[in-house]
Amino acid sequence: MNISVKNLQKYYGKNKALDITELQISEGELVGIVGNNGAGKTTFLRLILDLLQPTNGEILINGENVSQSQSWKLFTGSYLDEGFLIDFMTPEEYFYFSGELYGICKEDVDQRLKAYEPFMNNEILNQKKYIRQLSTGNKQKTGIIAAMIVEPKLLLLDEPFNSIDPTSQIRIRNTLKQINTEKKTTMLVSSHNLNHIASACSRIILLEKGLIIKDITNIAEKIKEVEDYFSVNAQ
Amino acid sequence: MFFKLLKHSWLSYSRAHFFEKSFYIKLLVGFIMFFILLNMLMAGMTLPAILSEIAPKQEPHEIILSALIFIMLADLLIRWIFQKIPAKKISPYFHYPVSKKSLAAFFIARAWITFFNVYLLIFFIPFFSITVITGISKQAFVLVIAGIIALTGLNHSFIFLLKTLPEKNNVFRFVLLLIIAAFAVFSWFYTEHILYASLWLGNSFLSGSPGIFVIIAALIIFLQIQSKKNLQKSFYNLIEKRSEKKISQKITLAEKIFRKIPVYGKYWNLEWKLINRNKRAKSSLVQWPLMLPLLLILFWWLPENNIIHLPVFLIFFAGSYGFFHLQFFLSWESRFFDFLASKNISFNIFIKAKFYFYSLLALVQFIILAPFILLINPAYVFAYISVMTYSAGVIFCILMYAGINHSSRIDPNTKAFFNFEGVSSNQFLMIALVFFSIIPFIITGQIIPVKNATYWVLLLSGVLFWALHPVWIKKIVNNFIKKKYIKLEKFRKD
What we know:
The complex is a heterodimer. In chain A, helix 2 packs parallel to helix 5 (about 135-150) and helix 6 runs parallel beside helix 7 (about 195-200). The termini of chain A are far apart. Chain A has one domain (about 5-235): 3-Layer(aba) Sandwich (Rossmann fold), CATH 3.40.50. Chain A is built from eight helices and ten strands. In chain A, about 35% of the residues lie in helices and about 25% in strands. Chain A is an alpha/beta fold. In chain A, a hairpin with a 2-residue loop joins strand 1 (about 5-10) and strand 2. Chain A is globular, with a radius of gyration of 18 Å. Chain B is mainly alpha-helical. Chain B folds into two domains: about 1-245, no CATH class; about 260-490, no CATH class. The two termini of chain B are about 30 Å apart. The interface between A and B is medium-sized, with 35 and 32 residues.
């Protein structure tokens, strides 16, 4: 799945939250979106998912405008925040329901969940708890797994490394790389964690106040530039 | 520290969600409160004269004092349902250098400042001040009011103790339940004894018997000390409670049935879980069966020639739980609407699923009630069917259509009572519209010279709307899509 962004602008009242003239994300790319708070990362992901109306411009997934078509949803998995969790369901019920919406039967969901058992660390399945009773980290894991088990062709994750333990962070990072390599899934991952992004992604987009400041593909060489950018800002 | 905590209590009240509501909602709620209080005041002022007329041989204050025990029991029940203990907001203070003893003492003292400790006095003070003129002395007036304040304090302390009991203290709850059951049985068979005991209690207040005041004061002190102990112990529970709670993972019969239904089954399952696993949604669902006997009493009570006015009452019942739930159409899903909107869900099917679900619920309610209605008066069966069809067709259409304008976020798991989250002025207009929508049908029924004309017109309208539901649901979906982004944005706001 490829994404094409044209003249995209989003205003909240008079405040410009995002302004991207042009951006192409090709099939199979693992793109990291970095930026300080308020840079427009979540707004960008919401716009791709058609959860926000752009003030101007359009986003095309495989040539189809996301706001005029629904077909892209069949191949897209996403987890942005707790608004993606049905918190009165148990994690199992939530996984089955998510699977059902993508035409995946219960048995297949169970089968696919096995791959995520180490990530769940015996704290999510069979806990006799609703999602709302889980810890913040486990809620985050539940949302991420639900987005992944449907094996989407396009995966969008907002701050997936937040609120979870270091081992799980590394597991997510490795899983993202593995899925991207094996299944050629296009991925957009926003994060504040430069190390994970640099290690997992083939491309990094740096947003600041809604604008793309840097778009880096040769990460090994240029990650220093990104670090320096944030260091200068910190001073 | 006491005053700082008191200030925090005030801030938590004055900055509560309710005060962020629109001016009209505040005005309406304020008016309702004022109306209730005014009614109590008026009742207190007029009841002595009314009682004198009904029972001229008895003093009005004696009649009221005879019912004092029942009044205080009713107060206890109201408190059990509505009165909240402020101790639930205590956990943010745990990490401050304040002793748990002081915190418990503060919250016990703070709990006395509540509407529930005042409202009965709004009735009793005018009532007894008028009976001063007609019978009792000024001194007796002061004493009886003091007695009522003492009983109010006793009720307050008792409820506070009950609500601060450790969750595992089931023995106490069981004993209490036995006492209540025994009292209910006793009062059923020996009502006169209770009335006599109640009058004795009231007269003890009037005569200023020190013994009764000492006993009540001792009981209040005992209950307050126990509450303080419980509160200190329950501090840990307040934090641990969340992580301890386990749920049953058994698949319910309803879920099993819904799973087998193609297309709509998965959405019915979601709806069923939504209304069963969330406090606010569930409380209306649980209360619903309690209202049904009232409907049967109404059927039994109404003379047959009054069948013309029946739809006015039936309109609130025949649509079953859907009538209440659909008032917040789509707001129930506000907390996870991003999930729904980002998935491959046809909103046409999603909304149809909701419509069929609540139509079916109305039908199930009718099937349960039908034998009883038949027994009471077979003529009402047709009346019920016609209003039910009208509810499921016309009213559900109005509620869902108007619901497209709701953009308020609702947490379905918050408390049910006095919860104004998601309530808008539109909703009041909508309910008024629903209520008044039936009037033209009643008028038509009066004009057309056919037996049960009102019900035939209601039935036909209901059937027509039901048959046309694919058309108006499509219109709802189109309107929804137009407003989708605005709704989503508002649903995200806490």
